[in-house]
Design a protein that fits this description.
This is E3 SUMO-protein ligase NSE2. The chain has a single domain (5-122), classed as Herpes Virus-1, CATH 3.30.40. Helix 1 packs across helix 3 (32-41). Residues 22-27 have low confidence and may be disordered. The chain is mainly α and 123 residues long. Helix content is 46%, strand content 8%. Bound molecules: zinc ion. Residues 58, 61, 63, 86, 88, 91, 93 line the site of zinc ion.
């Protein structure tokens, strides 16, 4: 499926939590389902395969993980005197450190607002 430039912009807004004034007039004609599907993939932790609740970003390679899962992974590797590889498929970063992880507030907010929306719709 081709993503239009306008949809890409909307995805960025969803991801980074910028204020969206487009919903107010509601006449954009953007395929919302597609956006939800696309953005959801970024909400999934590569370790747990579940939607992240407290995403942290690796500032070295730029990947995000569930905080609890990546911390647990690093700890267990370090206990065995091994380096923790980035669990994201295709990533070549082989030494993930606790100090490289930063809270991804924007993503956390995006997930939260996405879930709120989901809840509203099923109500
Ligand atoms: Zn990575």
């Amino acid at each position: 499926m081709e993503v239009k430039a306008d949809s890409k912009l909307k995805i960025l807004i969803v991801l980074y939590g910028l204020p969206t004034d487009r919903e107010a007039d509601g006449t954009e004609g953007v395929d919302e389902d597609m956006i939800v599907t696309q953005s959801q993939t970024n909400f999934i932790c590569p370790i747990t395969q579940l939607e992240m609740k407290k995403p942290v970003k690796n500032k070295v390679c730029g990947h995000t993980y569930e905080e609890e899962a990546i911390v647990r992974m690093i700890e267990s590797k370090h206990k065995r005197r091994k380096k923790a590889c980035c669990p994201k498929i295709g990533c070549s970063h082989t030494d993930v450190r606790m100090s490289d992880l930063i809270q991804d507030e924007a993503l956390r907010r995006a997930i939260e607002s996405h879930n709120k929306k989901k809840h509203r719709q099923s109500d």
